[in-house]
Each structure stands twice: as C-alpha cells, then as structure tokens.
User: Fold this.
Amino acid sequence: MTAVPDQPLKTTILNPAHRALKARMVAFGGYDMPVQYEMGVLKEHLWTREHAGAFDVSHMGPCFLDLAISGGDPEERHQAVASLIEPLVSGDIAGLKPGQLRYTLLLNEEGGILDDLMIGRPSDPNFQGRLYIVVNAGTKEADLELIAEAAGKAARLSRADDGGLIAVQGPDAAEVVGEIFPRSRSLSFMSFERMPLERRTVRVSRSGYTGEDGFELLAPTTAADDLWRRLLQDERVRPIGLGARDSLRLEAGLPLYGHDLDPTVSPVEAGLAFAVSKKRLKAGALRGAERIHAEFDGGLTRVRVGLKVLEGAPAREGAQIVEAGWAHLGQVTSGGFSPSLGYPIAMGYVPPAWSAPGTQLTVEVRGRGQAAEVVALPFVPHRYRRAA
Amino acid sequence: MKFSKDHEWVSLDGDVATVGITAYAADQLGDVVFVELPVAGKTVKAGDGLAVVESVKAASDVYAPVSGEVTAANPALGDNPETVNDQPEKAGWFVKLKVADPTELDGLMDRTAYEDYLKSL
Assistant:
C-alpha cells in the first residue's frame, strides 16, 4: 500500500506516543505508522507469541451503522439493519447473535473480494438496529461509500476512526486486559461488548490478527491515550509495530487485503469459504453466486496455499511459483521469514492439483529456483479462546 | 577503513579488500535473517550489486564499493546471519575482493567524513 503523492499522511491519535517511544515510522494505508519500536521486528514478534503485544490499529476503519428510525422489537431491528448490508457481503449477518462478531467479505458483482472486514451485533438490547463494522485502512473510503449508499436513508453510517483502536495479543493478553476490563475475561473468541473505563466506554472484542488469544479495544478520543499508557505500564506488554504484525499474521495464515486478496480473487479461491453463507448462496442471494457455486462444484483454477521454503532466501510477494520443469504455476502473494519457525514461509496461489500438503514446488527468488513444499495453513497453530 | 554513501565499509590489506555493511546500516535493516553472497571468482564493478541482505521485513541490496574479483564470501553468515547485527564491522564481513584499482578507495570517505555524512541524513 503506497501513499498518494502530494497528500499529507494522516496520523492516528497515538502518533505522538509512537514518536515518544522512538518508533520507526512508515507510510501505510495513507497513515504515518510505526513499523517497529526499539526492540525490532524479530524480538517484537517473539515477545507477542510469548507474552503480550500492544498494536496501534487506529488507521483501520471502525464505524457504526444505525437504523434511522427508533423503536420496535429488538430482533426485528437487527434484521432490518442486517438486510441493508447483507447484499454487499458474503456472510450471514441476519443470523448474528447479540454480542457476536463475524469475519466477512465485501464482494463485487463477480464475486471478487473488495475487502475483508468484521461486522458485529451489539449485545445490549437497547442497541439493536446497530452494526459495528471494522474495515481495512487502505480500502476505508471506498468501503464506507458502498455501505452508506446501500443504507440509503434507512440507516446512518458514522465513522469511529478518530479515536484509538488498540489490539492486545498474546498468551498474557487475557490477564492484562482482564485487569483493566474485568468483564473481558468472560468474552469468547469473536464476541464483543461495551465496557467502562472510568467514565468512558470502550468496545472490547476478543479478536485479532496474530493467531493468538487477544483483544481489540475501540476507545473514544478521550480514552485512547490513557488506555495505551495503561497497557504499556504492564511489564508483560510491549508496543509492537506493523512489521511484526505482518509476520505474525503470515504465520497465522491470515490473508492481507491488497496482497493475498484483491478484486479478482473469490472467497473459495482464497480458502475463505467459511465466510460464505451457505444459506444465502443456496438462495442465490449472494453477489457472484454463479461463480462461487461453480467453484464449490470443482471449477477452481487456483487456490491459496501455504509454502515452506526449504532452502535459500525468503520468497516475498511477487516471487513466481513453478514446477520442477519450470512451468509457471502461480505467484507468492505474501512471504517472509518466520521468526517462530526459523525458516522462510509464504502464501500464494497455485492450481488445485498442486495444492495438497506435501507437494514439492519451486519458488523463484532473484532468478534462482529454490525448493519449497506446500504445507497446511496456519503455519503456527491458532490459540483462540473459543466458546466452550 | 573507508566508507561508501551506501553504507558499505572497505578495509584494504595489500590488494585484498574486506567488505561489509556499517553498524548504521545493520541497525537500519534490523534483525538480519539471511544473506545472499556472491561466489568466489565473480567480478564486480564499483556500484554493482554484491549481495542481498534480508531482514524479517524486507530484502536490501548491498553494492560493491570498489571494483574487483570476489575471492571469498564469509562462510559464517550462512548459519549465523545475525553476526551482521552483532559485529557488522568485524566478524559480520560479507566478502573479500581482489581490488582492480586501489585508487578507487580514494573516492570513499574516512570514518570522520562518514560520521559527518550520517549526521547530515
């Protein structure tokens, strides 16, 4: 993701805090963001896997979609707001339970992925008819335009990206966040709730982008700085930059929009079929339903796989994937060195016949062929705290 | 020891130059996880790509500060690429070059000039 020239970088509310921590700053998604702090990418990565990391992800696009009319039955209100956004996405939004958060995909008419995002239904009966939505930084403006257009006059879309969105991830995250928000202890993976921080309200979700147990905390402008400081006062927590965020999500096998996902890629190709509502697909009520049907029936030309690079340099985005006879198979969409595993890993697209774990392939790095093997995703097991 | 604007260092012993990257460069790169080195016998011109150094985040080119023929690549960097971070201007050397024209070194900076250059960045 590159910054648009002549357009000054935007900053998050925590920007001065990053500078005070001597972070190395880079442009990402139009924002001036910390790529690493003093520990460096490798140690920040390992710290998160062993303890807890705090990430500023305020550049992303949290927002709320609220029904314009008030009153009515809470369940009906949820159905009404869900019906506005559902035509745009792959998932079952009507079926969300109170307090549930769902990973879903914004689709174009051909079933290609315009973004991956989170949609949540508040737990509070007084807030039904509202959806909590978090989209990616680089696609934020386009996404919000699409959603606002779909909502028309029936619902109001309000941005919440002026405050802080802080991820706390790692095995110690539950204890750290539990000391600040005692009620967070009872949240399970992919659920969220409003919780008080003194007189302010923070939305606490048990979710993240590292494969670890953890939380994402949406704090209003008045609380963001205070919350960030409280987290960092805990000796189990270190600030973690976008560099380690990328290597952590890669090990967790999680796709990054604009790299592993783009408008030509379908949910089935991307290995994200779990995010497609089978009920809505069956009813033909899904964008690109025809293509997605055909792909489920075996009409696939490429699929996302994990690759273990068996020798040589890391194979990064754009590296060609070839068979031993050098016939072209596809290309790497994300890749790098895995700090947890100690060898290079990558994700990319290959024809289904080449996608079984154990398949031997070659990746081309700077004109040289290096042996690689297809492995199951994730590379490093997820440690989510799922509901019992 | 002489220094280039691309943050390589050169130390000449007779007509053999040892080449590496400076402590500043190693710090900027972060934790080095892989170093791709040339094979002995390869000839390079000053400014040519000499090696590639990979951190967790990115790959960066290292350029030949002087022209010559590669006589050795540091074997220690294969198993211990972190040596580049630990001892960039000593054990973390990259290659030895048989220098074609020792006067090329005159175009490089001495340590004082390099440190002034770093301050200007």
About this structure: The first strand of chain A starts at residue 24 and ends at 28. The first helix of chain A runs from residue 15 to 20.
